[in-house]
UniProtKB/TrEMBL annotation:
Belongs to the class-II aminoacyl-tRNA synthetase family. Phe-tRNA synthetase alpha subunit type 1 subfamily. It is found in: Cytoplasm. It is an enzyme of class 6 (ligase). It catalyses: tRNA(Phe) + L-phenylalanine + ATP = L-phenylalanyl-tRNA(Phe) + AMP + diphosphate + H(+). It comes from Chitinophaga lutea. Its main location: cytoplasm. Tetramer of two alpha and two beta subunits. GO terms for molecular function: ATP binding; magnesium ion binding; phenylalanine-tRNA ligase activity; tRNA binding. InterPro entries: aa-tRNA-synth_II (IPR006195), aa-tRNA-synth_II/BPL/LPL (IPR045864), Phe-tRNA-synth_IIc_asu (IPR004529), Phe-tRNA_ligase_II_N (IPR004188), Phe_tRNA_ligase_alpha1_bac (IPR022911), Phenylalanyl-tRNA_Synthase (IPR002319), tRNA-bd_arm (IPR010978). Binds 2 magnesium ions per tetramer. Its EC number is 6.1.1.20. This is Phenylalanine--tRNA ligase alpha subunit. NCBIfam families: pheS.
Length: 342
């Protein structure tokens, strides 16, 4: 054992005097002392020849030697890193890194398609702020302060008295367009909206809408129905059924909800259609006379219709997606399935 300890002391002096000039000398040092056949591993192999009463003392010596050899190597690691960096900068023959082409988000694909369909009917795009005041989001739309319908549109308030909030629908954009008084009005309002809802496969605290508004003289419910029939046939094709159900919205009268047979289960029943075979895709109706008056439009001369639909709902039906949460999880495995368009 004494002979081995003397060898270790000689190796320690060699390590202390080691001053590499380049990465090649540093690599030779690593192989000599720290490699699989290096001195450190060889010396640890001598442990079996040491008497049991001396193993503890010898083990401490070996561990100290190993730490010294490793720390000396790490002290000059910068030489190796600089050499690798310099090589990478000078080697101009290496092929360049390819640029990965992304794809459009499915929400964007569906929104753009819906916009193109309505543009063929003469609708133009109108946009507005996502942070709204109470008047444009609720009161002007015949939703008084204590109206029970506000409970269905519980949202996130950013300021009280006066109330400023994250808009619950893009109907606020319609109010702003009506207040301008430039008639007739034929607009669609795409955008993101917010509601305080429990996140699930069918609901989220934010989502996207497209709402439409047409105000002119002699506009009827028949105009509304034909507009929506045209849209769903252009968007989904013709292999489905359509139905209108009477409903209630404070800002339209009469009001209806439009359903189509579920394209995911073929009408058999699934979690998306709540096992009914039908999926509601939009709400609609004739603009309430009080809403027209609130916005300075003569309800005795002008009539109009409005509708609103969730883009996520359309996307789920078109691509047969069963969980709405996938749209906002940013999972590349999900997103790369959708083909981008220029």
């Amino acid at each position: 054992m004494e002979q081995i300890v003397q060898q270790i002391e000689a190796y320690k002096q060699e390590i202390a005097a080691f001053q590499p000039k380049n990465a090649e000398e540093l690599e030779q040092y690593r192989i000599r002392f720290l490699g699989t056949k290096g001195l450190v591993k060889s010396l640890f192999g001598e442990m079996k020849n040491v008497p049991n009463e001396q193993k503890k003392e010898f083990g401490q010596v070996l561990n100290a030697f190993k730490v010294l050899a490793e720390s000396r190597y790490e002290a000059f690691q910068q030489l190796k890193d600089e050499a690798a960096g310099a090589t990478g900068q000078l080697d101009l023959t290496l092929p360049g890194e390819p640029h990965r082409l992304g794809t459009r988000h499915p929400i964007s694909l569906v929104r753009n398609k819906a916009i193109r369909i309505f543009e063929r009917l003469g609708f133009t795009i109108a946009e507005g702020p996502e942070i709204e005041n109470d008047w444009h989001n609720f009161t002007a739309l015949n939703l008084a302060e204590n109206h029970p319908a506000r409970d269905m549109q519980d949202t996130f308030y950013v300021h009280n008295n006066p109330d400023w909030l994250l808009r619950t629908h893009t109907s606020s954009v319609q109010v702003r367009a009506m207040e301008e008084g430039k008639l007739p009005i034929r607009i669609i309002c795409p955008g993101r909206v917010y509601r305080n809802e429990t996140i699930s496969a069918r609901a989220h605290c934010f989502f996207h809408q497209i709402e439409g508004l047409y105000i002119a003289e002699n506009v009827s419910f028949a105009d509304l129905k034909q507009t929506l029939y045209y849209f769903v046939q252009e968007f989904f094709g013709e292999n489905f059924k359509v139905r209108f159900r009477p409903s209630f919205f404070p800002f339209t009268e009469p009001s209806a909800e439009m359903d189509i047979s579920c394209l995911i289960c073929g009408g058999e029943g699934c979690n998306v259609c709540k096992h009914t075979g039908w999926v509601e895709i939009l709400g609609c109706g004739m603009v309430h006379p009080q809403v027209l008056e609130n916005c300075g439009i003569d309800s005795g001369k002008y009539t109009g219709f409005a509708f609103g639909m969730g883009i996520e709902r359309l996307t789920m039906l078109k691509y047969q997606i069963k969980d709405l949460r996938l749209f906002s999880e940013n999972d590349a495995r999900f997103l790369k399935q959708f083909q981008g368009t220029v």
